[in-house]
Prior knowledge:
The structure is a single chain. Helix content is about 75%, strand content about 0%. The protein is mostly helical. Helix 3 crosses helix 4 (about 70-90). It is flat and about 80 Å long. About 0% of the residues are buried. The mean pLDDT is about 80.
Amino acid sequence: MFDLGLTELLVIGVVALIVVGPKDLPVMFRNVGRFVGKAKGMAREFSSAMNDAADESGVRDVAKGLKAATNPVGSAMDGVKEAAQDMARSIDPTSYKPESETGKLAAERAKDAKKIQAATARAAAERKAQEATEALAHAEAAEAAVDRAPEQPSSAEPEVAPSDGSEAKT
């Protein structure tokens, strides 16, 4: 509605504090809030009344017709989309008669799909189990290497210099 930023609101608040005073400021802001709420309610009511009037007079139908006339390809595509959705709704795999050839094929495909899903799940589980076994063997080998190795600083770790500013003795 109003394009007020934070600085403008701050200036308005300071001026209101000076003009109205700190004692009456909350009452004034409450009244301003009520007024703004009533104005928004009236605007909402006016907007809904205008939409109702447009619906009653058929303006929306005329607007839809004009839109279709200005964009015939888009309206044709809307018709095609609606037809495709209707066809997709009518072709429900569960609506086939089980004794028909289509019903038999649908049942066979559903059975095959379940077999594929089961085989895929089994292969994934076996792969994860193999990876877990390999990781466990790697961890055990690393632990064994740590137990066998004597306590020595590795050459990859840099020596830490003393924090008091003196040089490290090597």
